[in-house]
Design a protein that fits this description.
122 residues; alpha+beta; four-stranded mixed beta sheet
C-alpha cells in the first residue's frame, strides 16, 4: 500500500523503513529470537480508540517527559513502534492521542522501572 517515513532508532542505531501492506489472509509469522521476544497482534480499531492511549511521565537524561503508550490486553506499545503507528494513524485521519492528564494524576517512573502489567517493550 505504501511506505511510511524512515525512522532512526537511537537505541539500536537502526534506520527502519516501515512499509504498509495488505494481506488477503493473515501471514505466517516466524520470530527470530535474537531480534524479537514475542508478537502482539492488536486490532487497528482498538488502537485508534482514545481509551487505548495512556500517558506516563518519565525521566530521560535529566528531563521529565510525557510519553504516550498504546495499550492492548496488558501490552504497552511505545517508542519507535508507537511512532510508526502514529504516522499511519495520522494518514488514516486519526486526530492523535488526547492531551496528557494533569501531572498529579500520573505516576513517575525512572528509566529502569517497569509497570507490572508491562508485557511488551520496544
Amino acid at each position: 500500500m505504501g511506505r511510511l517515513t524512515p525512522l532512526h532508532v537511537p537505541v539500536s542505531g537502526f534506520l527502519v523503513h516501515p512499509i504498509v501492506a495488505f494481506c488477503e489472509r493473515p501471514p505466517e509469522l516466524k520470530l527470530n529470537p535474537t531480534e524479537v521476544d514475542c508478537i502482539c497482534e492488536a486490532p487497528l480499531d482498538h488502537l485508534l480508540e482514545s481509551s487505548s492511549v495512556v500517558w506516563r511521565l518519565e525521566r530521560r537524561k535529566g528531563l521529565e517527559l510525557f510519553i504516550p503508550y498504546l495499550t492492548f490486553e496488558g501490552w504497552m506499545i511505545w517508542g519507535a513502534t508507537a511512532m510508526m503507528l502514529s504516522e499511519l494513524f495520522t494518514i488514516l485521519g486519526w486526530p492523535g492521542p488526547p492531551n496528557p492528564p494533569p501531572i498529579e494524576k500520573l505516576l513517575l517512573y525512572s528509566d529502569t522501572d517497569a509497570l507490572p502489567e508491562d508485557r511488551g517493550t520496544d
